[in-house]
UniProtKB/TrEMBL annotation:
It comes from Isoptericola luteus. HAMAP family: GlmU. This is Bifunctional protein GlmU. The lineage of its organism: Bacteria, Bacillati, Actinomycetota, Actinomycetes, Micrococcales. It is found in: Cytoplasm. Catalyzes the last two sequential reactions in the de novo biosynthetic pathway for UDP-N-acetylglucosamine (UDP-GlcNAc). The C-terminal domain catalyzes the transfer of acetyl group from acetyl coenzyme A to glucosamine-1-phosphate (GlcN-1-P) to produce N-acetylglucosamine-1-phosphate (GlcNAc-1-P), which is converted into UDP-GlcNAc by the transfer of uridine 5-monophosphate (from uridine 5-triphosphate), a reaction catalyzed by the N-terminal domain.
Amino acid sequence: MVPAGTTDGAGRTGESPAAVIVLAAGQGTRMKSAVPKVLHAVGGRTMLGHAVAAARELEPEHVAVVVRHEREQVAAATLELDPRALVVDQDEIPGTGRAVQCALDALDAKAHAGRATQLVHDDAVDDTIHDGDSHPLGDGLDGAVVVLAGDIPLLDGATLAQLLAAHHADGNAVTILTTEVADATGYGRIVREEGTGDVLAIVEHKDATPGQREIREINSSVYVFDAAVLRRGLGGLGTDNAQGEVYLTDVVASARAEGGAVRALLSDDPTLVEGVNDRLALATLGAELNRRIVTEWMRAGVTVVDPATTWIDVDVELAPDVTLLPGTQLHGATVVATGATIGPDTTLTDVEVGAGATVVRTHGSLSVIGEKASVGPFAYLRPGTELGRKGKIGTFVETKNAQIGEGSKVPHLSYVGDATIGEHSNIGAASVTVNYDGHAKHRTVIGSHARTGADNMFVAPVTVGDGAYTAAGSVIVKDVPAGSLGVARGQQRNVEGWVARRWPGTPAADAATRAQAPSGEAGQLGAQAQRQLADHNALTGTIPVVPAPDSTTGSTADGSATENEGSTQR
């Protein structure tokens, strides 16, 4: 072992373990899932992710993950979590003892290889064998070995560090993390020695006597072993038990038989070491983990209006004076800066929110929201959205792979995809960047201080220059130069009398007839007379020309008519 306060060749301190072994080979049949149990998520991480993260907090030289059921999935997930991790396959022999034995064999082989490389580098290889079985490579891994199950999601690095510190302080051969529960059915019982409190044995429930089943202190499946003790103990394990498995717990009896100290660290928080066996436990522990996360953020200066409806993943980062309104869910690596308000009814995944921003009733992922910007309500931010400082993405707006500059606004009912918008521009309501031609995506560029009209279609690739305007209802297919007005729409034509001819006798036709009749005439004609008039007009094609009342004409004070720009009256 490395003395406390010093480091070995790998840079580990005396309080760091030589290795952490994570047991992730089980099938988890009670989950009733095609997904391996350890890959079910709690608080934004898989249970395996929680285990590996806790292991890495100890700064071990090695992390080994034992796999078997759905081996490829679990192995791939392990290497994604920690590319340096050692993936170890458990063979057909069942049991936790066999799983740890497979891992220790792989770790020993790695230690031998490292020692051989060092000796070659030092030019100190001695091919002769000395003293029987001893040789320059030694026995293998040396130091403390932490073992934990891969389905204990609330177990954290701080608890493991306390367990490891107790192991070193007492000079134990084995140190076990335990807890007490009201109903210990199914758990291994901790049998202690009277007087000293040392651990005599861990007895599995199916192998326990009636008296032992009354014990409420249980094994958490989290241990620290001296590597040499573990190696010797594993070598003598058998399957003489009700399950027919190789129990890791039998190493405890082996260590005591050698005269080693076996002690337990009792956790007063049973939930911290509770494992997941089914979906009910998964949901229960997920809710408890979330409660703890929300509580810690409130203590750190975050306002959470309704903790019961607020969900925050473990990797989310929040600054003081952030406000989370009811129905808020923050997932993944979301970061929210000081003074921002999120919610109500908002879900953000891997989103960065700037200081003082507001995000209301919005669903967003892989996006950046600038300082003092506003989003929502009912906005959808897809990956690649970047909203600048004091920018706005408003009601019923969807964005994707879009960069929207400082102070620019997309206020209403629009889709902005594969687009770049400059600073202080305004996009009219019901606008769409038409980015897909059926084969490839193309980009729309709108400059700074631009004003685009309502109901615009920007058929990409197309550019609207700085300070340019576009008319409402335009389909922009050509570039609009800076400072220009882009207009692309058909000439309006009014077909007069169309309603009376096409739909005679309908309420619309009746209303039109009344509106077109001379003052007082519409009131003198009954409904039947009006229908007959409409029929006559339809047959003859005659459309009566009815002068508009004085109150609605464009007459000037001297009786002359005026023509408004853009009018289609005649």
